């Protein structure tokens, strides 16, 4: 009965391909005999150079009956990537998953995968990644996920992509690079980043003893300073994500028990110059300083104390005064509070207004057009208020 079934299949195939003159194809549909066969093992026939399960042969005949291209791809043993072009899937302008081109290509890839005992959907994901790049596939899936007609396909392909990475033994660092995230400046909210975080979650579930943190991958990929700048850029667009990662970063620093002045140097804030107060690194450093002061009150420090280890009083005062003229209201408030803190520090150091004239490099010749004059006047006023019976320095 089985032999008769094979003969019928061979005859059907010859009928399908006879118009093309491919008479020799029928003779290649030869039964593969084995001396011993397991009860659960499917018998195979030889088709176009492939040993194909008998259960799949009907699918081949049906698809070849629909499109000569199908037979051509089988004959050439075309890769998924080459077949993608052959079926003209790359020419589809709209939702690719709704196109006849993609559906035919997908059937071809699935059929070849089944014959090789591979996972069909994983081969689809691999094939599309080869054509579009992994990042490109992530973007495509994200853009088509809202379409009710293709939502199931999108879900299956995304799951297959994650599965093949996990089964392939890839690490979170490797997939981060595969998705080209290490080259991006703004990753939060992007489809590739969302794909990567899903992979990271599944990876950690599979490897509970070798768990990898999101923070470790990000800092190792970008470097500490660039990563902190990225957090600062994301504060408005993705505040929850940026603050979560910043909190984790600060916690890691706290575990190292590093003094804020050491971190200030590590982040190269001592080299920021006039851009110190607007540095995207400063907010994160301030958060660490506050956490450090709370945990180690005996070793607490202030921004002004730390700044003056790298910059002189005049430099800091001028930077603060310039920031007070910013159009950003929050910066103005920050600078105003910082100036108050600096004045208190000067008073604690018993620096009189007269002494501050030389510190601020003010003379009778330069007082009128020197921007530091406004700083001196403000300090002189604060000093007199604090010490009403003390020294009063008149404007030169």
TrEMBL record:
Residues 1-19 form the signal peptide. The keyword Signal applies. It comes from the Eukaryota. Keywords: Signal. This is RxLR effector protein. It comes from Phytophthora pseudosyringae. The lineage of its organism: Eukaryota, Sar, Stramenopiles, Oomycota, Peronosporomycetes.
């Amino acid at each position: 009965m089985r032999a008769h079934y094979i003969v019928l299949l061979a005859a059907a195939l010859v009928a399908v391909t006879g118009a093309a003159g491919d008479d020799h194809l029928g003779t290649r549909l030869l039964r593969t005999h084995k001396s011993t066969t397991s009860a659960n093992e499917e018998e195979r026939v030889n088709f176009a150079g492939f040993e194909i399960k008998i259960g799949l042969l009907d699918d081949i005949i049906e698809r070849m009956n629909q499109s000569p291209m199908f037979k051509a791809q089988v004959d050439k043993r075309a890769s998924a990537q080459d077949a993608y072009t052959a079926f003209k899937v790359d020419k589809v302008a709209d939702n690719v998953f709704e196109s006849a081109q993609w559906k035919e290509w997908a059937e071809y890839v699935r059929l070849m995968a089944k014959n090789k005992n591979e996972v069909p959907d994983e081969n689809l994901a691999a094939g599309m990644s080869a054509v579009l790049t992994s990042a490109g596939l992530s973007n495509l899936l994200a853009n088509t996920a809202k379409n009710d007609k293709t939502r199931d396909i999108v879900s299956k392909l995304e799951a297959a992509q994650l599965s093949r990475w996990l089964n392939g033994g890839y690490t979170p660092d490797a997939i981060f690079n595969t998705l080209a995230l290490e080259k991006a400046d703004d990753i939060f909210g992007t489809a590739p980043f969302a794909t990567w975080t899903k992979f990271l979650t599944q990876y950690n579930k599979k490897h509970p003893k070798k768990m990898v943190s999101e923070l470790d991958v990000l800092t190792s990929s970008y470097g500490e300073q660039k990563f902190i700048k990225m957090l600062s850029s994301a504060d408005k667009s993705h505040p929850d994500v940026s603050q979560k990662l910043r909190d984790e970063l600060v916690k890691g620093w706290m575990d190292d028990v590093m003094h804020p002045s050491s971190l200030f140097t590590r982040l190269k804030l001592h080299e920021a110059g006039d851009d110190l107060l607007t540095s995207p690194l400063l907010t994160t450093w301030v958060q660490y300083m506050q956490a450090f002061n709370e945990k180690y009150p005996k070793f607490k420090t202030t921004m002004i104390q730390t700044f003056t280890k790298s910059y002189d009083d005049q430099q800091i005062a001028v930077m603060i005064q310039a920031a007070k003229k910013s159009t950003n209201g929050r910066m103005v408030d920050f600078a105003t509070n910082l100036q108050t803190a600096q004045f208190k520090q000067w008073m604690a150091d018993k620096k009189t207004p007269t002494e501050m004239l030389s510190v601020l490099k003010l003379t009778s010749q330069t007082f009128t057009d020197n921007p530091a004059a406004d700083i001196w006047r403000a300090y002189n006023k604060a000093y007199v208020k604090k010490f009403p019976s003390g020294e009063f320095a008149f404007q030169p």
